[in-house]
């Protein structure tokens, strides 16, 4: 099995032409095996732009318009190189924190190795009970974070590692 590198992005909130996916993120995603977008996309052409770089797997977030909600799911289980990864926005589920809510949607998924989520705009990269919980933050709307961010997953020999990248 080869190593897979996955670009991870969330909370782009690109609702008009004034805000774009940063060039640095687009450059960083060149050559990745696929891209995960954890919701709050705002416009279909954001997914089209990412799809020009690599295959895209996306879910809708709480701020996405009906036209995206109608074509995307709230949560998905992906099989990437034999590794099962949950993808959701983080606004649904049960728990006190965004990571807990995201993880709760995948209870009972056998062989789950990672859950990728967004919503809080807070980068998060932590393994809990053998499952990587990963939030790339936001590359366009950092809110209370010092810097905008995005991320990568590396999948190798059935293991998943997360890495947060800052702009």
Please explain how this structure is put together.
With about 170 residues, this protein is α/β, with parallel strands linked by helices. About 15% of the residues lie in helices and about 35% in strands. It contains 4 helices and 10 strands, in the order βαβαβαββαβββββ. It has helices spanning about 25-30, 45-50, 65-70, 100-105; strands at about 5-10, 35, 55-60, 75-80, 85-90, 110-115, 125-130, 130-135, 150-155, 160-165. The chain has a 5-stranded mixed sheet, covered by helices on one side. A 5-stranded mixed sheet has the order 4-5-6-8-7, covered by helices on one side. The longest helix is centred in the N-terminal third of the chain and has 8 residues, at about 45-50. The radius of gyration is 14 Å and the shape is globular.
List the helices and strands and how they pair.
Layout: E1 4-9, H1 23-29, E2 34-37, H2 44-51, E3 56-58, H3 66-69, E4 75-80, E5 83-88, H4 98-104, E6 112-116, E7 124-128, E8 131-135, E9 149-156, E10 159-166
Parallel strand pairs: 1-2, 2-3, 5-6, 6-8
Antiparallel strand pairs: 1-9, 4-5, 7-8, 9-10
Brief synopsis:
With 167 residues, the protein is of the alpha/beta class. It has helices at 23-29, 44-51, 66-69, 98-104; strands spanning 4-9, 34-37, 56-58, 75-80, 83-88, 112-116, 124-128, 131-135, 149-156, 159-166.
Q: What descriptive keywords fit this protein?
A:
34% strand, 4 helices, 167 residues, alpha/beta, globular, 16% helix, five-stranded mixed sheet
